Amino acid sequence: MRKLTYFIATTVDGFIGAPDGDGDFFYSHLDAEFVEHLKAEYPETIAAQGRAQLGIADAPPKRFDAVLMGRATYEPGLKAGMTSPYGHLPEQYVVSRSLTTPPDPQVRLISGDLPARVRELKARDGLGIWLCGGADLATQLIDEIDEFVVKTYPVFAGTGMPMSRAGFGVRPLELTGVTTLGGGQIVSTYRRRR
């Protein structure tokens, strides 16, 4: 059975974007060591344009063969002409109530009972499913998330878009790995205790 992994960038105080959702400020905190770590451990999470620039366009998926993102996460790339940002993955899903036809043949749309659809995807054979974002999607799928990979950047935002809006609830996690990088980034992996 596949697992759903929320692989997300966050500030030290737990925000994944500015109040309007923009996360571009994270790019100013990328350094060579961090990029090399992503290339080596999570190459499939780098969008097609970045993969080409980094010389890993043909790198096979290592952990995920599917990506699930909300329309708001998908929209900036779409506006820039990237209709299939993760075309190197066999499955790309965009959750949307407003899109009625996929902007690209490689992108599949999901609407309706999202948790039930994700359970169907998890029941398939394959690598994992990467929950790319954002906060609203993580809120809807909080009970389906099996693993959290949190890339904490050395920045304090004060306010912004939280990792989730699921509301208070104690959801036990088990720390399964920590990688500290020279630029101050910390990649922490947690498994959901069921």
TrEMBL record:
Pfam families: RibD_C (PF01872)
Record organism: Streptomyces yangpuensis
Residue span(s) of domain Bacterial bifunctional deaminase-reductase C-terminal: 2-184
Sections of the chain in a coiled coil: none
Annotated PANTHER family: 2,5-DIAMINO-6-RIBOSYLAMINO-4(3H)-PYRIMIDINONE 5'-PHOSPHATE REDUCTASE, DIHYDROFOLATE REDUCTASE FAMILY PROTEIN (AFU_ORTHOLOGUE AFUA_8G06820)
Alphabetical list of InterPro entries matching this protein: DHFR-like_dom_sf, RibDG_C, Riboflavin_Biosynth_HTPR
Domain of life, per lineage: Bacteria
Gene3D superfamilies in UniProt: Dihydrofolate Reductase, subunit A (3.40.430.10)
Identification of the protein by name: Dihydrofolate reductase family protein
